[in-house]
Amino acid sequence: MKKHQFNHWSEIKYLKDIVTNPLIEVGEYSYYSGYYDNLDFEDGCVRYLWGDETSRKLFNPIEDYGWHLDKLIIGNYVCIASGVIILMGGNHNHHPEWITVYPFADQIETSYEPKGDTIIESDAWIGMNAMIMPGVKIGEGAIVAAGSVVVKDVPPYTIVGGNPAKEIRKRFTDHEIEMLKEMRWFAWKREKIEQATSIFSSSSIDLLYDFYQREIKS
Fold it and tell me: How far apart are CA 27 and CA 25, in angstroms?
């Protein structure tokens, strides 16, 4: 499990450098800060995702059973804190509508039920010890408070918290959110982003929009 040791709490691991599972898609500059748990991202933070090394040796659920396997899709500039659990649907063979939720081995082929891809869009921040349930979509610029359990989709630029996680507030006005969604700054070339870091580290969306019109859109 401890493939990627963290030496201090401010150290981060860029996901592009450590992810090997083909069912995990990762954008640029997204990172995992796992010092306090010191667990491997793929087998500690991400759980029950078919395709881990041991499971691949045991059987291939696509070839053996024809299952559609859910993916974890992470955008650009995503921040994932220590203790986060991204719970995938690879173990979803438990049916509450059946007489028993027990997954009998001879029923595994038919009992598996995909939950859909789990998506964390660009510029989202997942706080310490939060849990994201299978098939959830975290919108761009969203913040998941520490210790939250996210059971449904989170809109862009929205702060959620609690168990189950509920909306606390929007980060910006509706008009400002629309401006941000138009600009999609996290998709700009890195050199342009570096030119505007002082604006990003402020609350002036109007100033960023001026930069966008002058440097990106024109």
Answer: 7
ω into 164 cis (within 30 of 0)? yes
At 84-109, the pLDDT tens digits run: 999 997 767 888 899 998 888 888 77
Q: Name which of 18, 184, 27, 47 is nearest 119 in CA terms.
A: 27
How many whole angstroms separate alpha carbon 16 and alpha carbon 29? Answer: 8
Compute, in degrees rounded to 10, the torsion defined by CA atoms 188, 189, 195, 198: 40
Contact predicate 80/45, CB 8 Å: yes
- Does residue 95 carry a catalytic annotation? no
Torsions phi, psi for 137 (to 5 deg) = -115, 120
Tell me what percent of the residues of the chain surpass a pLDDT of 90. 63
pTM equals: 0.91
Give Cα separations from 78 to 13, 27, 64, 140 (angstroms): 12, 8, 35, 9
Half-sphere exposure (Cβ direction) of 125: Cα atoms closer than 13 Å: 12
List, for residues 152-191, the tens digit of each pLDDT value.
Answer: 999 999 999 999 999 999 999 999 999 999 999 999 999 9
User: Whose structure tokens read 């939060």?
Assistant: 130
Place of tokens 């969306």: 205
Catalytic residue of the set 68, 94, 95, 175: 94
Cβ atoms of 108 and 93 within 8 Å: the answer is yes
Which of 85, 97, 65, 89 has the alpha carbon at shortest distance from 163?
Answer: 85
Q: Are 36 and 84 in contact (CB under 8 A)?
A: no
Instruction: Give me the residues paired with residue 120 across strands.
Output: 74, 138
